[in-house]
Design brief:
5-stranded mixed beta sheet, 5 helices
Length: 113
């Protein structure tokens, strides 16, 4: 499944790097502690977080994540958007909280199998 499908299914707002919504999503990781995400997420994951600062882009780039979704209608900072655009990492925003969004994405990914 690609990011574009998830964006459409869940009504996510794409903030940057919309040209990369064809990125395949192989799984997901939900977490706000950067060291935890670096240690436990995987390439192709979609990362669900509350963090909005540009360090999330560095972690997503390092781990080769498919994209980042910010929860609770959180808005990324301008420097975060600039860095994500440069790194070609889509950032999307959801009005849902982490538990509900994670469950919905999990169900979408399971349906594709």
């Amino acid at each position: 499944m690609n990011l574009e499908t998830i964006v459409k299914e869940l009504g996510l707002e794409v903030k940057c790097a919309s040209e990369n919504l064809k990125n395949d999503v192989t799984g997901g990781y939900t977490g706000d502690l950067l060291s935890d995400v670096m240690a436990n997420s995987h390439e192709g994951n979609i990362w669900i977080t509350r963090q909005v600062h540009q360090n999330i882009v560095a972690v997503a780039s390092l781990k080769d994540h498919a994209g980042i979704i910010l929860i609770n209608s959180c808005e990324p900072t301008q420097d975060t958007l600039a860095k994500a655009s440069q790194e070609k990492i889509p950032i999307m925003v959801s009005n849902l909280h982490a538990f509900e969004l994670t469950g919905k994405i999990y169900n979408l990914l399971e349906k594709k199998d």
